[in-house]
Amino acid sequence: MFNKNYRKRMIKKLFLLILLSQIMISCSTKKFSDKATKKIYPVERFGQLDRSVLDSVLQNGSNTSIDSNKPLVIIYYPGKDKCNSSGSSTRRSTKVWYNKMEKGINKIEPSNIVYVYKDSTDLFERHDGFKDWKQDPNKVIEKTFFKTHPPCGGYVLISDSGRYISHLAEFDKKFLWQRLEQLIN
Fold first, then answer.
1. Which residues are CB-neighbours of 140 under 8 A, at least 6 positions away?
2. Strand ranges in the chain using DSSP code E only, listed in sequence order
């Protein structure tokens, strides 16, 4: 016969494990090594920053025009890894995906959308000609939001007041849209 308290504790533990699996991801410390040490990191980070400083760095370092009254969406490519170098997407499907993502973002709120990469290896084979990818100026985006290599890439959403959500991993555009709505409301 089961103890009621034991059952409640087990249900609570199971619930927490499920919740944890939704918000944490295991990242390899090396890009291509199966033997690399695995660490657990939060998929999302929330914070506040001085938006004017970041806008200035992006404008000067990547020759990009940014309207500080609009949200800033940064799509980040960290370089080739196991996640972003596999899959069945074609150049055409990738172009369609990015265009739909941008249309959805601007439907929610007209925004600055900036594409930033750390390492261009394999980037232009799938994405060339679709978007104007800029190299991370002085690794500011990496140092501020992606201290750990994000598998497949990631994004950062920043409100005009400087509140942000960074996402460290592959993402669905619908999830990005939901997070943008939460950030601006």
1. 54, 57, 58, 61
2. 24-28, 38-42, 44-48, 72-77, 112-117, 133-135, 154-158, 163-168
Q: Is residue 32 part of a domain?
A: no
Residue 46 backbone phi and psi in degrees, to 5: -120, 145
What CATH code is carried by the domain that includes residue 106? 3.40.30.10
**Residue 85 amino acid letter:** S
| Residue numbers of the domain that contains 153 | 43-184
In a domain, 5, yes or no: no
| Cβ neighbourhood burial of 70 (10 Å; 0-12, 13-18, 19+) | middle
Which structure tokens are listed for 174? 């619908």
What is d(CA 82, CA 63) in angstroms, rounded to the nearest whole number?
Answer: 31
> What are the structure tokens assigned to 61, written together?
């370092």
The tens digit of pLDDT for each residue in 91-121 reads 788 889 999 999 999 999 999 999 999 988 7
Residues 133-159 have pLDDT tens digits of 899 989 999 999 988 777 778 999 999
pTM above 0.85?
no
